[in-house]
Amino acid sequence: xxxxxxxxxxxxxxxxxxxxxxxxxxxxxxxxxxxxxxxxxxxxxxxxxxxxxxxxxxxxxxxxxxxxxxxxxxxxxxxxxxxxxxxxxxxxxxxxxxxxxxxxxxxxxxxxxxxxxxxxxxxxxxxxxxxxxxxxxxxxxxxxxxxxxxxxxxxxxxxxxxxxxxxxxxxxxxxxxx
Length: 178
Fold this sequence. Notes:
mainly alpha
């Protein structure tokens, strides 16, 4: 959208975690404010004084956030409002530091525990679980790394650990499609 740019490439205007998005990781999306021509929330930002995050708007949460978390696109939408609230309460700098750690963990997962079919699963898991839960999963996975003879077994175990933690919290680690 012409005239709409942003500095933060980790957290979008509307609360999506761009750094954990499979589209951005694959080079298919420049992120919020870098060429996304069809974003109605970016247009709204320009109309309301070019705000950096929706929570800065006096109208937030507005009708654009109604039913927002019922369906996902290529990235999960289920934590948008909660993540905006977290960024507001702890500060964007602290929030970004947490996201950077999540991105590093996601990179380790994709490099060592992806059988070519787990990218979306890991992106959703790292988006929806708390950092402490992700760290717990990684500690369990990496401490049992040598137990498994094959990469296929390591991948299956890693997915199982994340699924177990998600089940404990009643979180589905799948994108919700219409």
